[in-house]
Amino acid sequence: RQIKIGWYLSSLSIAVAFFGPAPMGSIHYVYDPMHAASYAAFSPIAWCLFFAWTVFTAHLGYRNKVIDFFSWRGFRVTTRISYAVYLTQFPIFFYNVGRTRAPQYFEFVPAVLFNTNEYLVVFLASFLLTVLFETPFINLKKLLFPSKSRTSAGLPAEAAAACTAR
């Protein structure tokens, strides 16, 4: 019962965060700074509540379609490379900004099309950083420090079995 209430509240929070700015998209919308400020302040909290609840229930062993979706093996590629993207995008971006010697007129479509070289360099640098450094060091850590099972981590055997049986 408590799990269902938690899912209802977290689903409500993600729905409010996702659909909250929908009225701002109306052609007849009159800008309200209070509406914009409250959305900017509370939307990240609502997203975090949803994902915190998802991680919490997955950790407890509960399964549903949301947890199965976020547990998809295909996401491993993006999760492994995301930290490398975080590390490489700003130096590459600032290098390209520093290389610019004259003001440029910004247009969306040409900017997206002509900045693909920047996207490719970020992706290539991130891929190389992941393959050459992050993955080998993760494997080295696994070899040097083998992970303990749940029962050896301090949980009684029946508690560990109950967590995995759900």
TrEMBL record:
Taxonomic lineage: Eukaryota, Metazoa, Ecdysozoa, Arthropoda, Hexapoda
Listed transmembrane segments: 7-31, 37-60, 81-99, 119-140
Protein name: Putative drop dead
Domain of life from the UniProt record: Eukaryota
Keywords: Membrane, Transmembrane, Transmembrane helix
InterPro entries in alphabetical order: O2_lipid_transport_reg
